[in-house]
Amino acid sequence: MRVLVLLIVVSAAACSAPPKPSTAARQEAALEANRKGEAYVRHGELENAARSYREALRFSQALEDAEGIAANAINLSIVRQRQGRFADARASLAAVLDQRNLKFSNARLAEVSLRQALLDLDEKNLAGADDWLAKAAGHCAERCPAGAAIHNVRAQLALQAGRTDAAFLAARSAHDASRASGDQAEQANALRLLGIVGLKNGEAASARQHLEQALAIDRELGAPRKIALDLLALGQAAALGGDRESARAYYARALAVGEADRDVAVTAEARALLAH
């Protein structure tokens, strides 16, 4: 009798277990976590964004969804980089780079390599950035979606190395490629880089022209961090032209945007420029 009772209890427990989520349900859960991450980024809640992207990544890994794994790993890495957590940013990308048993698209591998290059740039490792940039280019075919971004990162690398002529050529290539593909985000990045090249060359008018175009696009895209970067550079262009009052106005606007976006790096730079 005791054995019969035990069997009944075990059977009841098995029947009461919730059904495992279907593939479609897991995919929807991953998409929902990704959407939450995007919303948190828009509101400057980076830690919550990281938590959501990590959850989305986990769902994608459970399904061996190569596209989802790559997208969420990249998003998580971007958030960690913005937080200044470079080791965590690299660890996020390992979900792609260390996974040898899944097939990732060349476009995604190019994006991951670019993220590594940008991390190296942030840490002033120019040789490492150059290596990763070469890998990104190797993954990129003739009409690769990351083509304009590769040119932009090449321009940033040249600027870091003090090679303004090379930076100008790379940024101009990025601008042309982004216009051809309709990639407004990379077009704005290219225009901002052209503006910075103008600043480095002491060409205030040229810098301002490019930066105003970048600002117009970034406003249209609703990209607060990029808007703040445009304003900071426009302030430097005004200062270069001898208009200190306009420069301070740009810095104050950048500070307001950075504070609203909870961007620690932008607000720190704006305050430093205002203190001069």
Please provide a written account of the structure:
This protein is 82% helix and 0% strand. It has 276 residues and is an all-alpha fold. The longest helix is centred in the N-terminal third of the chain and has 20 residues, at 23-42.
What is the total tally of β strands? 0
β-strand percent reads under 5%
The N- to C-terminal Cα distance equals 87 Å
Low-confidence stretches: 1-19
The helix-strand sequence is: HHHHHHHHHHHHHH
Secondary structure class reads mainly alpha
Individual helix count: 14
Helix % is: over 70%
Specify Rg, calculated over alpha carbons.
23 Å
Silhouette: globular
Indicate the mean pLDDT: 90
Main sheet record: none
Summarize, please.
By secondary structure, the protein is an all-alpha fold. It contains 14 helices and no strands. Helix 3 (46-62) runs antiparallel to helix 4.
Features:
276 residues, mainly alpha, globular, disordered N terminus
